Request: fold
Amino acid sequence: MDDEEIHKKKLEAIEARIEQLDKEIGYVDEEPFDVGYRDKTGKVVIYTDPWRNTYSFYEGLAHVEDYNCKHGFIDKTGIEVIRCQFDAANDFSEGLAAVMNSNKKWGYIDKTGEMVISYQWEDPGFFKKGLARVRSSNGKYGFIDKTGTVIIPCLWNDADNPDTDLIRVRDSSGKWGLIDKTGKELIPCRWGDISPYFRDGLVKAKGKIGLWGYIDTNDRVIIPCQFDEAYDFHNGLAQVVYNGKYCYIDTMGKIVGNGLKP
Reply:
């Protein structure tokens, strides 16, 4: 059996243990109390005395910090399954967790504690649908996959985590736009702010004077920027604040009826 197979078996064993503990222990309060983590009955199942700081459980493991300011992970029995050895750590997402070394560089480990993506990044994000936002040494943001391959080059001054099909990005001018998960620019960076959610074919965007309007998928202004606040469309209607008052508009920007939702 080669090293890759051994590692695969180890990871499978850890996942099986996590699944078994989920069945045996079940829910553990996501925010630890002063004395420890509690189950759904309120019983303390893990006392937190051994650690300086404790955090919520994600994917069966919780991030902890010891009194030497080193970070690791525990399971639902309180066993330190990944020893406290990192200068900082984030929670697990999609099987990987970002960890930081003494040089302030971040990489990603799996649930065996093995380094999967080497230390090279800054300000790492969580994996969502196979992608994570990272910042390179040039101060720009891009996106990597779970092998560490750069999928979207680090070109952006800021970027959201890839929670949705479209991703908000900000360029050097300070303006926002939208890209897809291949990095293709769908809406150019020319807006003061923008939503990543197209609803009824429209997305809200903030114009030059700080007012909101709506554009289509071709970046054409369909409803001019005139609203103090704006919300996503749903079933042909969107709530907006116009001249200081809440009202509803249709997809042509017309106030519906008396402005109240029908």
Summary: The mean pLDDT is 93. The longest strand covers residues 80-86.
